[in-house]
């Protein structure tokens, strides 16, 4: 029996995705650390460390099935994202054996964990024909590989969605299909003196980078180009200028202090015509206790820019195996079970988007989503780019550098000069980051 289990509901997904989760009941402290080597007791539990998330809750509710399969008790500890990161830092630096399965963010932590030797190599295990590694979507699958080794298996995916007011765009020909149309409609619908905004989105320096990434890709840019900084390119500067103008001219005041938690309620309370953010948070707009737009909200794919519609499609959470675990075989069996085609299909049918192609091609697994959103997610998964932030060891520092021209644009400052300075800083950062990676 697991140490924590919670009821699963579709509405909880959006709320938990906002980081509202707290440590789950059943205790958050694991046993004392010990050095690598030795063998586990037959009675030792398989220890899973996870983010407190609707996916983890759903798995906890089903874990009895796995316990019967392997004949070993499973202990699941659920923490907030900050608590989880701190626990990994302490335990893995001490080569702790009391963590077996690790819920990780492949785009935020995997490079660093791989550099430190904390993740077991799963390459041979995912190669088992019965596991069907090729069934996983290409973009999340590629982000599971570091230096040619598979180090994690994606279990939750995420893409951007254009949330819009159907009642406001009905006379404008429907939702914007291009970024030019998004700008024009946002300007037309904005009434900032009256407290209504054309567009709301993240504007906080670091927090905005992941959602801005789809604008960057759709203008033809990327964070790095051939291993070098790409944020000073013509395409990146155009993306900075566009996003800055969109929020400066049609967005709310104080937007440079807004991340997800501040921007989302503005759309939910009916104060903006358009909003682009993670598709995972859609339930917030359908919940009458926090939303006034549940009857008018629409869902559409990311609008096309000069390079087309190029949203991100990322593994927001993945499972890895602790290199120091004494139960690596059972840990892998847990990963295999939790990411199996049957489990992914079952959880996606409950509104938790997975990473397997077979689930996305099965209409029954998408039935829990609003039809317009299901189609938006499907299209974005096909078009998606597999990262939404710089792929570096020190992700937080990189996002801070990349976000500086973004803020300048929102504040109405001239972007090219700021972008050139940030480009030079990011280029120097990449050199140092690569040295750390090679050391």
Automatic annotation (TrEMBL):
Name the record gives this protein: Extracellular solute-binding protein
Organism: Streptomyces hainanensis
Gene3D superfamilies: Periplasmic binding protein-like II (3.40.190.10)
Transmembrane segments: none
InterPro entries, alphabetized: Bact_solute-bd_prot1 (IPR050490), SBP (IPR006059), TAT_signal (IPR006311)
Source taxonomy: Bacteria, Bacillati, Actinomycetota, Actinomycetes, Kitasatosporales
Pfam family, one: SBP_bac_1
